Amino acid sequence: MNLLKRGVEMGSEELGETIFKEDKGHFWGLIETRPFMRAKSNYAFALRKSGNTQEAIKHYEELLELNPMDNQGVRYELIEAYLATKSIKKAKDLLKKYPEDSTDNLYNLALIEYMEHGNTVKLKKYLKEAKKHNPFVGDYLSGKKKLPSTLPEYYGWGDENEAIVYAAKFKDVWTEEPALLKIL
User: Fold this and answer.
1) Residue-range domain boundaries for the chain
2) What is the CA radius of gyration of the chain?
3) Does 1 score more than 90 pLDDT?
4) What is the mean predicted confidence (pLDDT) over 49-74?
């Protein structure tokens, strides 16, 4: 992890302060910034996996400031970190900023609704939509089906492999809400 941190520091030094001010918002469009962006993303990921979620969040948020179009898909890692730390408002804002009808977003909307308000009509609506998009997720989150030891190499929207990938990322957060799992 120290090498990743050093890579981010060296990249920042090499690029210089000016580029961070002048090109904030379209950083990814500059080819010379991409190695830095990749290093920073990898460093944030390593921080998250080592349990330093708050520090990882800081780096992910900085990446989105530099590149709001999120060509790297940082938002998917960030939402996981937000939900793990119960940063519900930030998670909700992130989903609003990057709306999409994906399994991740649909199930996360339901999770957020439950964490904020409990068992509501809106929760039932979100779960219905999420299940319609991918009916396999519930079996993996509830433990009815066991997650494989390795993640699938590919997945398609709405297929079982996508459900496995989602459950592997978010099962810990859902497990903290046993009443929601029963509703699911």
Assistant:
1) 2-86, 103-183
2) 18
3) no
4) 96
> What is 2-86's CATH number, 1.20.120, 1.25.40, 2.60.40, 2.50.20?
1.25.40
Residue 59 structure tokens: 């780096």
- Against a cut of 0.70, is the pTM above it? yes
Closest CA to 130 of 183, 53, 173, 85: 183
- Rounded Cα distance between 68 and 74, Å, is 10
Structure tokens at 111: 């999770």
Torsion of CA 81, 86, 90, 92, to 10 degrees: 100
DSSP state of 104: H
Instruction: List the structure tokens of 112.
Output: 């957020």
Q: H-type helices in 67-134, by residue range?
A: 74-84, 88-97, 103-117, 121-133
3-state class percentages of the chain: helix first, strand second, coil last, to nearest 5: 70, 0, 30
Q: Which pLDDT does position 31 carry in this prediction?
A: 93
